[in-house]
Amino acid sequence: MTVPAGSHILDILVEGVALWNNGTSATLKIGDATVDDGYYTGVNLKATDLLAGESLSFTAAGGKAGSYIANSQVSPRYSASDRVIAAIVTTVGSVPTTGSTRVLVIWAQSTAAHISYASYVAT
Questions:
Q1: Is residue 101 exposed (0-12), middle (13-18) or buried (19+ Cβ within 10 Å)?
Q2: Strands 78-79 and 55-56
């Protein structure tokens, strides 16, 4: 998923639609070119971490937060250049025949005409 230059990532939602089957494991990670699991890491798509009807978000990462969201702040939200957010599923064993996970990247972009400036001086 390409997020355009000059945009802020507001959240990345990961929704369990249907559990994955077959094989030993099906594990999801989400990141960018710098850190491939920077947003979410080690999400078990077969059970426990993300059941059907459940979701993960920056504020409710379910213990699966990557290094970008593991602390009390989220970084990097802004980028001056285009960036690709990749959701990568790694399976071990036989190829899954069922399973569905939805990923939604929510971003916003402002233009110079819509940016207002403010300053504050403490006295």
A1: buried
A2: unpaired
Averaged over 4-16, what is the pLDDT?
95
CB-count burial class (<10 Å; 0-12, 13-18, 19+) for 28:
buried
Q: Give pLDDT tens digits for 30-46.
A: 999 999 999 999 999 99
Give me 35's structure tokens. 């850190």
Q: Cβ distance 65 to 40 under 8 Å?
A: yes
* pTM for the model: 0.85
Domain ranges of the chain: 2-109
Q: How far is CA 59 from CA 6, 83, 117, in A?
A: 23, 22, 28
